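Aim 2 progress update. The chain analyzed this quarter is reproduced below.
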Amino acid sequence: MRLSTKLILAFLMSSVFSTGIIVVFTRALASREFERFMDDRYQSELAEDLARYYSQHGSWDGVAAEFSRGHGPRPISFSIADPQGRIVVAGEKYKVGEPCSKEEFEEGYPIQYEGNTVGVLLLPVSPERSPLDYEFLHRLNGSIFLSAIATLILALFLGILLSSSISRPLQELTKAAHQMAGGNLGQQVPVRSRDELGELAQSFNKMSADLARAFNLRKQMTADIAHELRTPISLILGHAEGVKDGVLKPSAENFEIIREEAERLERLVNDLRTLSLADAGELSMEFQPVDVNALMSDIHAHYLTLFHQKRITLDLEPAPGILTANLDPNRFAQVLNNILDNALRHTPAGGSVRLKTQLTENRIKLSVQDSGEGIAPEEAQRLFDRFYRVDESRNRHDGGSGLGLAIAKSIVEMHNGRIWAESEKGKGLQMIIELPAV
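Predicted structure tokens:
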């Protein structure tokens, strides 16, 4: 059975059950209130007639004969008590002169004459109803029944609308999920509401877009890996076969080319392994409180000679005091090494690179600013993509694997931090890392 059918039946059954209860109670209450209304009206009219009789005769003498006229010898159905509670006009239940019960006296209807109570009307039993009274009650019950039928029809109509509004988004999600299962990723469904179904549709759309992007990135990365591996392998095989066939001399220069390409291949394989471990959450980490200023000072001292050899100034501006963060010092040093290697390759001779640390709102901020050529802001957003290179000047021959910044991003995120790049053409490139302070 389809979900929409189940929902319609559920709405209908709930409506039938609730409407049936309402009809039963409404008919019972209507009958009771009608009886009460008729009793009150009868007592009121009878009290007016009795008051009129009292005003004409000045006493209750002969009232029984007057009001039993037309009913034969049967005694009257009502009784009248004086203001003190003694019966002055006896009906079927009482005798003249005996007291009535306090409860019946309090429930009796007062008979007024010139502002005074001249008697209390006691009506022990309800009067007989006329056929018109029963006809009215029958029509009232019929109207209640017709209203219940109309309510059920309306409930069925609303149930169809509501079930459609609920099942339609689910049907769209199911169809899109089947298409994704068939390999057609990137499916999007319309968001028709702001309730839980709307949130589900939004989450599905985001998941679908993320899956499509991840799949495309995976395909691109596979192609990039094959491309990156092909170059050093081709060079190694080419030179080795050339030396073997005698086309190339077994010189130190040719062997150095083979060794360099083998080292580059090894670095690429190691970077791929590190990145795959980080993606799987299996990259080993040994966190400990680390003074970030001291770590930056060690990195600065390590790279100072390399930067001076290229006539690039390397400055360090540490924040005052001790900035402590919970880090794996070796892994985080790997992040800084990747960033500084990138800055060293792309900062021209005579330029400068500045290392800086800051403490802002319990967050430690590290920045590496170079004076290179810079890149466009939209390109800066893609620097952490795997194998991404901005232009031909940043190619595989400059020593990088194209994975350094991707590895840096993964390690920083494992430290509950974030890393991003800011740059403009002609204004250099700045790498920024934010970490939680301890």
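Residues 196-279 form a domain with the Helix Hairpins fold (CATH 1.10.287.130). The two ends are 58 Å apart (CA to CA). These observations will guide the mutagenesis experiments scheduled for the next reporting period.
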